[in-house]
Design goal:
35% helix; 227 residues; Rossmann fold; five-stranded parallel sheet; six-stranded mixed sheet; alpha/beta; 11 strands
Amino acid sequence: MISILSTKLLTPAQKSLLVHAGLAFVEYPAITIEYLDFQTPTETYDYFVFTSQQGVKAYLRQYDRMPNHGQISPKVKAFCVGSKTQAALQENGIATQAIAENALALGKIISDSYNHCTFLLFSGNLRRAELPNVLKENTIKYQEIIVYRTYPNPKKITSQFNGILFFSPSGVESFHSENSFADAMTFAIGQTTAEVLEKYTNKIIIAKKPTVENVIVKAVNYFASHD
């Protein structure tokens, strides 16, 4: 039987995609997240920017801890990366002005059409530099707050797997610190994750959209065609 390793914990719906395809799987979190306490600036910004679901969770966690926070103001509007990030925002009453599949594409939207606006970025400690670089190059006013930290959670895996699912560059590095890729096919959630994988293997397939479900579907389709 084909076996899959997921480097993050999956939801029941995500697991069912593998089960219904007849694939065995093991899951473990290759990284852990620490949400930080932070203060939002008193200065007003036109838009909030979230490049991950973790940034949204960190913002909402801090917002809920504020005394008498009430409901999130309908005036808050956001730019974001990824459909899952957009869904997390909308579920909590935050409208999205623009969405892109990666930070570089979001930077282009901002620099092309919103370069007169101001932005507050909610980031993790390992965020890539593309978006801030675009904003700086176009002299767009912004402030960045680090709202969560990512830590490796390395674990020695003794079993061999036909496929390994990766969801972040830090997840790749954490896995590689204790394991080899052997002959496994790897599946990446996006280009930045694939770029890190390229340092260790040439067996890489990238999801068409940066969602966990699309990574799983890529694996299911690949092994169905190689059965």
